[in-house]
Description:
- The chain is an alpha+beta fold and 425 residues long.
- Among the domains are: 7-147, DNA methylase specificity domains (Adenine-n6-DNA-methyltransferase TaqI, Chain A, domain 2); 210-355, DNA methylase specificity domains (Adenine-n6-DNA-methyltransferase TaqI, Chain A, domain 2, Alpha-Beta Complex), CATH 3.90.220.20.
- The chain is built from twelve helices and 18 strands.
- The strands form six sheets. It has a five-stranded mixed beta sheet with strand order 2-9-6-7-4. Strands 12-17-15-16 form a four-stranded antiparallel beta sheet. It has a three-stranded mixed beta sheet with strand order 5-3-8.
- β6 and β7 form a beta hairpin.
- α3 (109-124) packs across α5 (150-189), α5 runs antiparallel to α11 and α11 (358-398) crosses α12 (414-424).
- The two termini are 45 Å apart.
Amino acid sequence: xxxxxxxxxxxxxxxxxxxxxxxxxxxxxxxxxxxxxxxxxxxxxxxxxxxxxxxxxxxxxxxxxxxxxxxxxxxxxxxxxxxxxxxxxxxxxxxxxxxxxxxxxxxxxxxxxxxxxxxxxxxxxxxxxxxxxxxxxxxxxxxxxxxxxxxxxxxxxxxxxxxxxxxxxxxxxxxxxxxxxxxxxxxxxxxxxxxxxxxxxxxxxxxxxxxxxxxxxxxxxxxxxxxxxxxxxxxxxxxxxxxxxxxxxxxxxxxxxxxxxxxxxxxxxxxxxxxxxxxxxxxxxxxxxxxxxxxxxxxxxxxxxxxxxxxxxxxxxxxxxxxxxxxxxxxxxxxxxxxxxxxxxxxxxxxxxxxxxxxxxxxxxxxxxxxxxxxxxxxxxxxxxxxxxxxxxxxxxxxxxxxxxxxxxxxxxxxxxxxxxxxxx
Length: 425
């Protein structure tokens, strides 16, 4: 493979440092145009458009020199979120913590995006900050990175972006599936428009429904309050960590904290987690929820409580735990602390839950269980794509993998993946 020439960032792209409109001008922040800050990006954000702060056309007019055309690369070069990145899909402004690249002719936007991601550890060596990491624009522009000719850039970009395109498509479908399950729960159990509600008589609750506590319909098992065991990379036991508990009931199977068989036996004395069990975090991110997907057997780690459904379907349990009613119950049952609040296990037992009759539970489960299964299949596919993409990223950018000589597999399509799942079922 030919050695790639070292090219300065400024030779490959025009670098624009953002500016924040004066906060005294509150009128500038009344609008619907995007204003990016590091909190709107992540370390593997791909296409980005939504921002927590919005501005108006007047702000765009004042800071017209900082306006970024769509398909610019937003790179965080000043903050503890150093290296957060994304490609904007619409014209935008950013704050001063972001150095944005507008690629010049002869340079692929997608390639430069992946090059920056792979080069963040190297770029960080130019950090001149004491308390806050910073690589100033004057230094950032002069950093040399290895860049091949445009045809090779495009080949590498096509390989890596195939994975991110699929992840983005999966995310849209996952969000839609989660919304479907959430809306069905709200319709049936919040608005009380469940099947047959017109013919059902009720005062406070429909006939046959009961107000119970969580301990009436689940087994609630506390984690062990002992020292966290040493990690063993070759260990067969999996100890769940807080990092495995994502948003919206999602569970991350990629990161696995492995422990010895002896330690694992100790940590599953109370419960070994299986499909359908749920976890509730006790401190920090109070009441973050995740449900164990199929194929996972693990031990609950520290600062989390296991909840196993008993007499109600797992599909109903997870939707209740993600519901507004659960949020209200958690707010009522938190224990205040000197440093941070907590949700004690004894209070999880007291959480109130409205349980419908068995017929409604069965109908709900028949609809929602396949939705959750499909959501989990798409999540697993996205996890596979991220792992494979990251392995390829380091090898492609280091030159260990030659795109001119090797045939590199693209990720399977969603249709192929779901067809394979259907065949298994």
